[in-house]
Amino acid sequence: MKNIKRTSLQTEVIEYIKNYIEENRLQSGDKLPSQQKLQEMIGVSRPTLREAMKVLETRGVLKAVNGKGIFVTSTGDQNMISLLNFTKEKQNVLDVLEVRRILEKEIVRLVIHRATEEELDDLGETTRLLMQLFHEGKQQNRVDHKFHNTIYRLAHNDALYQLITSLETTMVNFWEYPLDLEDPFLKSIPLHEKLYFAIREKNVKKAQSINEKLLDEVEYEISQKY
């Protein structure tokens, strides 16, 4: 394989690793080369490689085990990986967003019924940090991503978590912006706080309505920019 030289590094690194797995016929449980070795093979910086690995972990393709290395996990979800591969067209991304609407409506309901007070406290801390960064005009993409990921996790359904996080990651990849640059969905940030309070109040209909408005903002940005 050739070293990566195009600008969309994170996307390219993801594709490189997936191709490496396929070309070497790695199976679930097989170990990847060390991060240092992968850096040398691909020709990218450690932070870029780390971000790509996080995406693949979220998608359920890889798993990092402390002190042991990086392993291929279950590769049975090939349909989802195929779905993620065709989302460069606007209509395809809107289709993915439509699926997110369906899933997130139920996720919000599950979170309200299943999340513990301690878990909601953690979500509250993330929400407060997100709003603080927003009001200070500072970069908030990483915290924004953590907010959604936490909500998905609090539904306490592993299969649903894997599916929805893959779709959410797809939206990030579509815009091809690194997590430390300006968020294209900046206008939706205030709705995150409203969503948190509605979840905390255990008001299912209100929380679902706010989440719909949040996704409306995302759809609007996609329609305006593409």
UniProtKB/TrEMBL annotation:
Keyword annotations from UniProtKB, A to Z: DNA-binding, Transcription, Transcription regulation
Alphabetical list of InterPro entries matching this protein: GntR_C, TF_FadR/GntR_C, Tscrpt_reg_HTH_GntR, WH-like_DNA-bd_sf, WH_DNA-bd_sf
Record-linked SMART domains: FCD, HTH_GNTR
Residues covered by the HTH gntR-type domain: 7-75
Keyword Glycoprotein carried by entry: no
Pfam families referenced in this protein's UniProt entry, alphabetically: FCD (PF07729), GntR (PF00392)
CDD domains documented for this protein: WHTH_GntR (cd07377)
Name under which the protein is recorded: FadR family transcriptional regulator
Naturally occurring in which organism (per UniProt): Muricoprocola aceti
Organism phylogeny: Bacteria, Bacillati, Bacillota, Clostridia, Lachnospirales
